[in-house]
Structures are given as C-alpha cells and as structure tokens.
Amino acid sequence: MSSPVREDTMTTTPVLSVEGLKVATASGEEILHGVSFELRPGKILALVGESGSGKTTAGLACLGHFRQGLVHTAGSVQLAGAGQAGNLLDLPESQRRKLRGGAISYVPQDPALSLNPAMRIGDQILEVLQIQGYGSSDADRRARTAEVLAEVGLKNDPAYQRRYPHQLSGGQQQRVGIAMAFACRPAVMVLDEPTTGLDVTTQALVLQTIAQLADRHRVAGLYITHDLAVVAKVADDVAVMLSGEVVEQGPTDQVLYRPQHDYTRKLLAAVPDLAGRRQIGRVTAITGAQAVVPDPAGRPSPEVPEGREGRNLLEVADLQLAYGSNQVLAGISFSLRQGESMMLLGESGSGKTTLSRCIAGLNDDYSGRVCLDSEELAAGTRARTTEQRRRVQYVFQSPFSSLNPRRTICESVEVPLLMTGRMGRKERRRRVREALDQVRLGESYLDRRPRDLSGGERQRAAIARALVNAPSLLVCDEVTSALDVSVQASIIDLLRSLQHESGMSMLFVTHNIALARHISQRMAVLQSGRIVELGSTDEVLDNARHSYTRELLANVPAL
Amino acid sequence: MSVIDSPQIIAREVETPPGLFRRLIRQRQAKVGIGLAAAVVLLALLGPLLLPWATGYTSTEFAGRPFQPDGMLGTDNLGRDVLSRFLGGGLRLLMYAALATLLGMALGVLVGMTAAYRGGRVDGIIMRSNDVLLALPQLVFALLAITVLGPQGWVLVTVIGITHAPRIARVTRSATVNVITEDFIRAAEMYAVPKWKILVQDVLPNITGPLMVELGLRMTYSIGAVASLSFLGLGMQPPTADWGLMINENRIALVVQPWGVLLPVLAIAVLTVGTNLITDSLARAAANSNTGASK
Q1: How far apart (Å, rounded) are the C-alpha atoms in residues B222 and B93?
Q2: Digit-coded pLDDT (tens) for B141-173
Q3: Closest Cα to residue A428, out of A449, A448, A440, A411?
Q4: Percent of chain A beyond pLDDT 70?
Q5: Which of A78, A129, A313, B79 could make a disulfide contact with B64, Cβ separation 3.0–4.6 Å?
C-alpha cells in the first residue's frame, strides 16, 4: 500500500466497524459472542473490561490477527477508506499484513518489551516507513520520522534519533511506540493498555499525546484498558465488555455517569477516588470527618488495650542502602503506631519496595535501625528470632509468582506454622482453614493448586499465608497492582476489615495515590530514596507541601 | 496482556493446560518413540526368561560347532547360539546405562541446584570446575579410568555417571536460576525454611520439565557409551553375553554369520532412536503448554 490513508474528511461515517464478531478456541469454546462496535475518525473508543473479558482478542481482531489457538467463526471487520470497503477478515494473510502498520496500527502495552533494544529509535521508526513503502525516497522517510517524533511531543533532532530505547524513560519509550504506530498516518490505531505500566505523571503525558493525535490528525482510536479513570480522561465513547460480550456502549458521559448495566455500575463502584467520596467495598473511605475506622455493621471497635493505642510498634531510623554509587535509600526514618495503617507512596524506582523488604528482612544490605516494639530487628530474616519473624509478615506484589505452582494452597499457607512452632498436622490444617476463612476463601480451596485460582483468589491465599500466624505488622507490597479494579476493591476491602478486626498495623506500599483514603490513616511519599512528605492522609492530600506530591496529585485521573 | 502471541494467556482463558505427561503422549512422535523403546526394553527384560522356551538352551555359553545353522539364527565362532546370546545380552547393558544415568542425574542436579541457589563464589567455583570436567572428552576419560581401575561393572557405571554430571549440572543450574527469582522462593526464605528444604520442595518440582528432557538425552548417551566401551573390550568381559561385546566378537565373521552383529546393532539403534524421539517430544511438551492441542 503506497498511498497513505486520507483522514481529512469530516464525515462521521465509521472508519472501522466490527459486526457480530465471534471468536472461538480451536477446541470449540467461544470467547467472543458477537461483538460489535464502530470507530469514527477523530474519536477514541475505550474498550473496558477485566482480564479474560476478551478485550485484547477483540482489539487484535481489528488488525485481522488472532492469537495462536483462536479461530474466527463469524462476523466481519469492515475497514473503510483503505482502498477497498470489504471485510478485512476475508482478505488473505499477505494483504492483511500490508494493512497493519499502514492503514491500521497497534501500540502494545509494554514499550520496554516491544522496542528492539539493539536498534536506534530513529531507525526503528524508519523501518516501519520502509516496509510500508511510505514516500518516494529515503529522504522523504527521514523527514517523516522527524515529523512524527515531533507529533508525539518528543525531540526530533538527529542526536535524539540516534538514541537506543534504554536511553529513554518509560514514558518516552511509549511515545516512541506510538510514533511508530502513527508513522504511516494510519486511519485506525489500536492501543492495548498503553499506560498501564506508567506512573501517573507519565501517564498524563501519554494520554495527552494520544488525545492530540486523535484531535489533530483525525485518527480513530481503540483504547483497550481496565482503568475507568483513564477512560474518563481520554475516551469519547465507551464499550464495556464482560466475558466476551459488549454489555454497555455509548458516549463516555452517559456510560460513566448514568450507567445502565449492573456490571458497569459494579466496575464504577470499584474505582478508588482520591476524594474518598465513594466507598469501595463495604468499609467507608477515610476522610477528615471519619479519621477513625467506622464500622458499618455496628460491631464494637477493635479492642486495643488502653495505653497501647499511641505506642509505636515499628520504628525505622536512618535507613540507608546503596548499590555502588546508586543510593537506593538515603536515610529513611518514620514510625508506625499500633493498629495504624500507613501508605508508602512512590513511583517505580523510588525505593519503596526496597524499603519494605528491608523492614520485612528480605534485604539485609542496609544500614540503620529497624525496631519492633523498641527491640532492634536484625538484618535478614534468618538472623531474627522466630517470634520476630512471626510478628512481621510480608505480602508480595504478584500473586502469580508468590505461590509455588506445584504445592497445594494448604501446603503453601502452612509454611509459616511449620517454621514457628511444633504443631500437629491436624492443628495446622485447622489454623490454615481459619486463615482462609478470614480472607473469605472456603475450605474447598485447601487442596487446590494455584493454577486453578484466579489472580484475586491467589492474592487472598497469599494474604492468608501472612495472616496464619497472627502478625502484628503486615507489609503489603503493591498487592493490588497486578489485579483488576474490581478485584483490587475487594482486596482493599478485605485488608481494611482484617486490620480492623485484628488490630494489626499495616504498611501499604503502592504507586496508586487514589487508594490513599481507602486504606491508610497516614501516608509517606517517597522520592528517590527519601521521604519527602509524611503526615496524616488528610494533611498530605489537602495540603501537600512538597512540589513532587502536588505534581502527583495534579495528574491523578479522576472520574 | 503484553505479549500478543503468548499462548499461555489463551490457555488461561480457556482451560487449565493438561499435564506434562498428557501433552507428551498426545504427540504421534512420542507414541512411536515409546513403542520402539518399549519393544527393546521388553526384549531385554524378558529375554533371559524366554531363553529356554525360544531356543531350547538354558545357557548363553553352550558350545556347539562354530558357524552352523543350528537353532534359529545359527552359532557364532565359538559355537554358541546367536539367538540365546542376543536374548540374554540386553539386560545388563540397560541396567548399567540406567544406573549410570541416575548417578549422573543425582550428582548433576545436586551440584547444579547448589551452584544456582548459593550464587557468588560457590557458584563460580562449582561451575568452573565443571568446565574443566567438560573439557575432557567423555570416552577418553572413561578409557583412562577403566584401564586404571579395571573393567568392573561399578567402575563402568561410576565413570559414565561422572562424565554425565557436568552437563546435567549446567542444565539444572540454568533452570534453577529461572525459578529462584520467583517470589515464592523469597517467601520461603522469609519464613526461614531450611535451605535444603527450599531446594527439595520449591525448586525441584518446578524444574522437572527440563530435567526429564535431560534424563532422556543422557539415557541415550549412556546406552551408547556402555555399548561402545564393551565393544572396545573395556566394558563387559567375555564370556558374558552382551550386545556391545557381541558386535565386537562377531564382526570378524560378518559375512559368514551376519546375525551376530546385525541383531545387537538393530536393537541398540532402535532403542536410541526410541529414547531420542521420546526426549524430543518431551522437550516440546515442556516448552509449550499448547503442544498437541491443535493437531
């Protein structure tokens, strides 16, 4: 295809329409049950749904691609203005390949994985243009490369084009990915969760880029995401998907603010918001009016003995850690009271995971003091006493990696019991059952293996492992970042109630500032190894003193 | 869902993938391999028991007249019945090969897992001495050891086992390195689970895929090694009935009495081809959870 698609027609006829698309696995199970939507020039349609709802499958079908093991059974994808008005799926594979990158392009989720690390970015963009036969000479294509870099808001001087992907930040990498997709001036762009791995500030920038492209160059966008707050910011229309079906479709305002379908309402209710107006799950948000955890069921408040209330459970003093010249933690000091929940907020690379691992004893390279009940903890779990190990528990970020796939849930959860006390098999099993009960997993999960569980269920099992020994301090490292919003809501809800019931302290490490009012009474903001802001959640959110915190707050997408 | 062509994601959406063994036997190649290998293994196992029934002789050392068409396949240069010697000669070869493989696996897995798990200097020392062992040609090392220690069965098994170990250690180490970065290992560390227990409970079950492939591959090599050493006169000693030895003894009379060479050669060839086919399909099944599903 040598001529680029013209996009300056001001019509509202759809540029790409998907009609009754059905996709099934090779073994006959249907994954998409007749999905229909239309993309219009200059408009962005957000395809929203949880993992496994088929949104990526539908997005890839727009490119005429089906992942290995999937077959197209019915329906059509009509691409207008690409020289033929036929069904894209009727074309032979060789012709579909010509369309991809030319008339219709794809932006994958992780820019770090999708760019070739051994190729300069200018050459990577140029390669797309060469393959598509854009322009008439190499000089033309070079000019277009420079132009498209400017269009996505990047520098375009030759020095910048000679950079390798690793010399760019995550946000810049993603914009190079978008530039590659946009190089041949496609009519349609499919964006598969392009901002999921990015922090809020970068996300805001990328979203702005996408909106500008749609606006100025009349590109039709299909934005696949699970983040409804992002949808509110970028999309003109929304289609909500639930297990292979579009259950609700319409303009963004209507779907987000006057949802018709139950599932949409459920999804919306699960989105955490900064102001704490909504409650996610059963426990209300922590705001100035309700600083203390209120109990919706009217149960008595947690029985914290008098006098213990204000005592510091955890004290961290001047924690430092450096790998070579890279100062990961530069003197961290804070304290955490009994029964208190504190959020440790930071972007990737701020040292928040390292800090939480030092406290949990998973990292023993630090200098400084970590005290539990004014008793200094040794560095490294193996150097700590059994009792100390019992009292501090840690929940890992990814539930897909933190449980041994070859062991049953019971075997995994009982490990802490095996290591701390001499208990009979029956007693251990009883305790495990109790812990699973606490995280709302039934007895039937005891003998299942992780692969039979969903992500949320696995994370619950991992939390059960941390709870089985009744800890005093629970360190949660990004426990919800690998999960869908609705699952995140239920996990947050669970953690709040657990903390409430047992009176344990919690250190909640995250990059998602929107969760603040839903989980923590106090918060600390971490930037390049230093705490730049520390105070009650209200103080920090309403009166941020540090410019970094203010910048973060300004960029949080909200519904 | 970052990688668009990742088969695992689809598998998760559809059904839990079938186990390694199911994926293995779904492949036609594996069925053929299992058939071939099983035929030879059965022959070797049952051969000694079938002796009197099949040939009428109870001993493999019966001496009749040389090169006579007595019995089904005639006699060899010392007048022994070829069929009896063939039926009786496989068991020891298989046993020695299996023992040598198991010894090599045990040593290699232990060393490889330790190196990967301990890391740092221990890893360096173990893997560098491994490289030194790898530099010695397998057969030369075996020849040397057997000439010094004499051609006994245990020497044969030990020497072949030891020459396998460094190769197995390499595979184990790289498989282990992938597993120990997982969070569940860190979790076990956090609960101060003893290190040997982490290796046995958490690491070993998760590297069985590559280890099974390695097991098959080493088994093939072991069979070859035992047979070649016997052929060279350094393995089984006459008058033992053994396939490797038979080839050597009968090759001088290949024109007069071809069965004495052909039968053991065929058996060894079929066995190695069979185990190789199984190993190949096993490797494919271990690498890809979709294997056998679409065909």
Answers
A1: 9
A2: 888 888 888 878 888 899 999 999 999 999 999
A3: A411
A4: 90
A5: B79
On the CB side of A305, CA atoms within 13 Å amount to: 3
Name chain B contacts of A112, Cβ cutoff 8 Å.
Answer: none
CB A217 within 8 A of CB A15: no
What CATH number corresponds to the domain at position B194?
Answer: 1.10.3720.10
Contact A362 B189 (CB under 8 A): yes
Residues of B in CB contact (< 8 Å) with A are: 1-7, 9-16, 182-184, 186-193, 201-202, 205-206, 290, 293-294
Q: Is the pTM of this model over 0.80?
A: no
pLDDT at residue number A5: 45
Average pLDDT of chain A to the nearest whole number = 82
Looking at the domain assignment, is residue B181 inside a domain? Answer: yes
Structurally, how many domains does chain B consist of? 1
Asked if residue B235 is part of any domain, the answer here is yes
Contacts of B135 (CB under 8 A, 6+ apart): none
**Taking Cα atoms as reference points, which of A61, A70, A71 lies closest to residue A36?**
A61
The one-character DSSP state at A237 is E
Interface test mutation site (partner B, options A406, A448, A451, A468, max chain B beta carbons within 10 A): A406
Specify if B16 maps to a domain.
no
| H or E segment and range at residue A529 | none
CB atoms under 10 Å from CB of A292, counted, come to: 8
- At position A548, the amino acid (one-letter code) is Y
**Containing structural domain, residue B171:** 23-289
Starting at the edge strand found earlier in the chain, the sheet holding A312-323 runs A326-337, A312-323, A367-372, A375-376
Where do runs of H (alpha helix) occur along A288-351? Answer: none
pLDDT (average), residues A328-337: 88
Give A267-306 as a DSSP string. HHHH---TT--S-SSSSPP--GGG-S---TT-PPPP-PPT
Across the interface, whether the CB atoms of A113 and B201 are under 8 A apart is answered: no
Residue B198 burial by CB count (10 A; 0-12/13-18/19+): exposed, middle or buried? buried
In this structure, is residue B13 part of a structural domain?
A: no
Residue B293: partners with Cβ closer than 8 Å, 6 or more residues away: A26, A27, A69, B26
Cα distance between residue A523 and residue A485, in whole Å = 22
- Report d(CA A414, CA B187) in Å as an integer: 12
Amino acid letter for position A429: R
Q: Cα–Cα distance between A447 and A399 in angstroms, integer?
A: 17
The answer to whether residues B277 and B36 touch, using CB atoms and an 8 Å cutoff, is: yes
Q: How far, in Å, CA of B62 to CA of A87, rounded?
A: 80
Q: Which residues of B151-162 are buried (b: 16+ CB within 10 A; e: fewer)?
A: bebebbbbbbbb
| A159 CB-near residues (< 8 Å, 6+ apart) | none
If you search the block for the tokens 């520098």, which residue do you land on? A155
pLDDT tens figures, A192-210: 888 877 777 778 888 888 8
φ, ψ (nearest 5 deg) of residue A407: -115, 155
Cα radius of gyration rounded to whole Å, chain B: 23
Using CA atoms, how far apart are residues B295 and A108, in angstroms rounded to an integer? 30
Q: With contacts defined as CB-CB under 8 Å, which chain A residues touch B205? A: 404, 406-407
**CA B182 – CA B165 distance, rounded (Å):** 26
